[in-house]
Amino acid sequence: MNPCRSYVKRFVSSLTKIQINTKRDLSLGVTPKTNKEPSNDDDSILVDKDESITLIGINRAKQRNSINALTAEKLSNALAAFEADDTSPIAVLYGVGGTFCAGYDIQELEAQCEKGSLDFLLRHEGSVGPTRRHPKKPIVCGINGFCVASGLELALMCDLRVMEDTAILGFFNRRFGVPVSDGGTARLAAIVGYSRALELLESGRRIDGKEALQIGLANRLVATGTALGQAVNLAFSIVKFPQASLMSDRSSLYTNAYTRHGFRAAMQTEIMSTSKEVLTELKEGVQRFKKVDPLQPKTEGWHVKEKPIPEWERLEIANENEAKKKNT
């Protein structure tokens, strides 16, 4: 028997045994344009914005958000459009309908196998999206349900991962003989360490939320049904900061993690990445610090979306400050 066809049959059989009980994945007031199940792949990728945050949703719930060639192309285009959008410094990637992403579409994989083709492994940007390059701007992903096989590789492409406590990660492709081909071997060791990465890749076992958070595979562990909303909250907490220095530090960290070797080379990258924009932001930041403006957001409020201060409260704060000056 063709080993590729044998893999497809085993994988289809395993999918019928997978059951998961999760609440809906949209919460905290974040609602994309639609969660309608598409009759075709025209709506397989949803794009929306919450203020300056770009929301990108995988919308193939009946296929457990597995990604075929057309959806991969749409996802690549959506992320490229986000990267070109100067009004949006950060994006949130999520899955509609209870699952983040179950990997590559099994029906299309079967068709490829019937042809004896491995074209899905050879696409320039990756089989499930632009996983074979580094995103130009930060991406936070909200993980619900199953995030497995190349779906896990898609999550590893993102800067930060917000995971629901009932979600499951894993390289389930291991048991069916499908290689990791969407950046998993390039990124996993940098995220969780070499020895742990080997164990996860070789065993192909399930990883629950508690373990994912413990080993650094997830950055936040949240209640079922809140991944998208909490991911958006995290994005808002990042977008409030001066972006030139943030992007400079992000670029240096990426270079030092993946391309530079040795402490001296890493220090050279960190120093040489400083630009005029970063120095301008630094100068403005020093002036803000010296003023100690009580109307500015406090440090403990950075983890949530900034809320505007009403005018009456501003006047009250100003009056209190004026009274303090008179008493001193």
Set out the fold topology.
Elements: H1 3-15, E1 45-50, E2 53-58, H2 69-84, E3 90-95, H3 106-115, E4 139-143, E5 146-148, H4 150-157, E6 160-164, E7 168-170, H5 184-192, H6 194-203, E8 207-208, H7 209-215, E9 220-222, H8 227-239, H9 243-258, H10 263-272, H11 276-291, H12 311-327
Parallel strand pairs: 2-3, 3-4, 4-6, 5-7, 6-9
Antiparallel strand pairs: 1-2, 7-8
Protein name: Probable enoyl-CoA hydratase
Organism: Musca domestica (House fly)
Pfam families: ECH_1
Provide structural commentary.
The protein has helices at residues 3-15, 69-84, 106-115, 150-157, 184-192, 194-203, 209-215, 227-239, 243-258, 263-272, 276-291, 311-327; strands spanning 45-50, 53-58, 90-95, 139-143, 146-148, 160-164, 168-170, 207-208, 220-222. The strands form two sheets. It has a six-stranded mixed beta sheet, sandwiched between helices. Strands 5-7-8 form a three-stranded mixed beta sheet. The termini are far apart. The chain is globular and about 85 Å long. Helix 4 crosses helix 5 (184-192), helix 5 crosses helix 6 (194-203) and helix 9 packs antiparallel against helix 10 (263-272). The protein has 328 residues and is of the alpha/beta class. Helix 2 (69-84) links the parallel strand 2 (53-58) and strand 3. Helix content is 44%, strand content 12%. It has twelve helices and nine strands.
